[in-house]
Specification:
Hypothetical protein af1432; Rossmann fold; 5-stranded parallel beta sheet; 5-stranded mixed beta sheet; 27 helices; alpha/beta
Amino acid sequence: MSEPLPDNVKHFRFDRLQELKAMGELPSPKGAALAVMRLTRMDDVPITELVRAVQTDPALVGRLIKAANAPEIGAERPVAAVQDALILLGAPTVRYLALSFSLLTGHRSGQCANFNYRRFWSHSLACAVAAQAIAAQVRTAPPEEAFSVGLLCRIGELSLATVFPAEYSRLLGEMMSDRTASLSVLEQNAFAMTHTELSVAILQDWGLPRMFVDPVFAHETPECANLSPDSRPYRLTWTLTLARLVADICLAVEAERRGLMLKLFLVGSKLALNTETLTVLCDRVVRDWQEWAAQLSVDTNDVPPFDELSKAPAAPEIMQTGMPSAMGIDGNLRVLVVDDDKNVRMLLRTILVQAGYVVFEATNGREGFDKALEVQPHILITDWVMPGMDGVELTRSLRQTKLGRAIYILILTALDTEEKLLAAFDAGADDFMSKPLKARVLGARLRAGQRVMMLQQEIDRDREEIRRFAAELAVTNNRLQEAALTDVLTGLPNRRYAIERFQQEWQAANRSRRPMACMMIDVDNFKAINDTHGHDVGDAVLKQTAQAIKSGLRAQDVICRTGGDEFIVICPETDLAAAMLCGERVRKAVADVRLTSGMLDLKCSISVGVAARGMDTPDIDALIKRADEGAYQAKQQGRNCVATVQ
């Protein structure tokens, strides 16, 4: 039986999700996927209608048929018709798959500069295939549903990159400059939420059951979830954790993969998967990942057999070639090798990877230019003579970009004439090296390049510190401004805010010639409550009364605490009759609430004075005074009522 995560797990506030949705930027399904989601939420939807909706998108048809033919589904015969696929998969699975494929298709790129959209979807697809295979192996969940959960478990990251592209890019830049920084901590400080919390809120909003949403919340730190090893939530959480790790290995560079294998086997042991079973499963995941990627036009990598990865010895930190350490300020340095000679690329990769560098390759100048903009290498080693765009043209083109100006460029050449070298340096090269390659000479050249890169990184870090300080100062100023306009006890806007807002609404009413009203509210017998039960009880009564008043107001109404037991409500575009109705609704809302504090159970009431702006109302003070007179009249009439003075 499934055991939910503890109720004290703090999920994301859904009112915040509604704010983000209102901005219209959150990733959301479109076209056929949207139609499928609407239909599958209906009771007893005819299969013919679902087939008709799916068939409007031929690509979706092919993907659902492929999903239905997956070995984990266990179809008795190959599925070729979309209707058979929908029946076999079931409506919930069709909804989740259609949603997943729609998001993948519609969000392959975006405006967040430091967010790697192509890598995100490649990783997510690998995680989906791995989750499907693991779920089928350990029988934790329906494999086809695990596929969708694996594909969507990082949707919060994509959403933050979509809604806050500039801010999230800056945050990811901080992660690049400080590898010890926590992504969740940075997100919480910047957005008052984390990508995990946002993922949970979005998945629940899309209708995924809690049996899948809770593991999404816990899988990044499963050891902190405090789940029973015999429970289904435990197995689902570790299934997703293991799937993420398999995806990490699929996308890691060769030098990093071997370091992740031990962790893979440790996590696999949580699900009673031995080394042999896990390596076979992972090899199947890689094949399925590459097949799915071909159909979805998603990037993949060549991954060696996992059995080979598990047995290969770890590479030494530095070969005996005089190579410098590959560590920079922001972690291991990235090197892009551009050469049309495969043997040269292999030699350079071997030397650099053994020394700890993160190495990327390109076979010609044009491919190297695109790759440089994508991976943002610290150092670029390029051959001079290549078809199409040669090394000098590549250097000149990169130096014309902001990113390219920060790369340390080393040109390989068999041409060492003075004119050629001057042409290379004029194009923007930092250094050159003659062929054939010599590892010790290459080490010396890279050591010089690293000194330049370290200085550049220190400058960038100092600039980022200044930017961060300025951003923190701006946030602090905003918080101080907010605190200056907020009542500490109730959390409502205070008298200062009320005055400023009154002036804004008064001017707007003058311009548009629309009505405006206000209400003065006094808590009845509040002094007696304070004198009888103490100020702590009085404070509790004020807070609960404030919330009750707020619950009875309309969306456009603005409530402020002006002091003591007095509140004022600004009612834009409201005439006297509407304001009286609103006042009565507020009075009833307070009267219906039982106010509690400790062992006490109290009833409370309010007296409400209402006034509307008329042709004879000269200014704001006159309107407030008339509302205050109405409140006084309500008290004279016996309290717990609404009154106005004509």
